[in-house]
Amino acid sequence: MTIRKAAASIAGAVTTAVLVTSCSAGGSGSTGSDPQTKAVADAASSVDRSTWPQATPTAGLAKGLSLPLEAYMETYQDTVSIDNAERHLETQCMADYGFDVTFPPAGQTPPPNADDSNMLRRYGITDRAMAEKYGYGLPDSIQHQEGTKMPKLTTAQVEVLTGRTSIRHSPTGPAPERAPSTYQGKQIHKDGCAGWADDQLGTRTMDFSLVSRLDGDSLTQSQQTPAVQNAIAAWSTCMSGKGYTVDTPYHADAIVPHTDGSPSKAEIAVALADIDCKKSSDLVRIWFTEDSKIQKQQIKDHQSELNALRTRRTNGVSAAQKALKG
Hints:
Helix 3 packs across helix 12 (303-325) and helix 8 crosses helix 11 (283-301). It contains 12 helices and 2 strands. 48% of the residues lie in helices and 1% in strands. The chain has one domain. By secondary structure, the protein is mainly α. A hairpin with a 2-residue loop joins strand 1 and strand 2 (186-187). The model is unreliable at 1-33 (pLDDT under 50).
């Protein structure tokens, strides 16, 4: 699942901003002096970025490691930039219909990983300092997030925003019925203000599923290579010497399952043994090396598609950043 798809979007509509224009057919667009524009920009700048995950780990056995495919992934930082520009567009669009609705800034509830590679835990836990505190868990601020609180919308506001009669809460569920074609005599955009933003900004095709699939494939394939299999066997032998019987790092957390609240001493002991055995077997470096080899070949095999995706992402983020500046 990509970061983009995992991020909460306005009213459940999957939208992305690439270029800001006026929302209404005859509107004047937004300017830097627009109070709404300033309010959105101020709110976005107030978000605590110190809690955002880093794409490249800064500590532990995975410190400094970055896989080749990461150059083509959408990072959490990208998602926030695009979402904030998008929310600005939707706020302006709703105003064109007479609705004073302001959507909260993105970036308030960051995920544990910055992109699909999830390098910090790609090969299991790798940060000893974190394991000493949380075992196999994560900081409470990440594990128990309330999520972004969206404003409550009236039925009419939902229809103007989404072009549907209700919010679609599940991406796999059936789409709600279409809304009336007009609101107080004004034509409702196809799929509402959210869909209009997608159409105007050309982002319906910004799909990161290819890079996500390749990333998952490389992890699976690299695990089966002789070098990684030997390293996993060495890790398993090391764990056995510490009193734990386990075949792969992905099963180590089941020895003493993590529960809500503070981790038990037993869980922390397993987690520390896990990381120490990864270090002695050099498992992380070996696995990363094999993973990287496979990804380099994947990039060669899909170069044109990946280049096009990266260009769309770069252009989108650049335009989104300009959008909030007015």
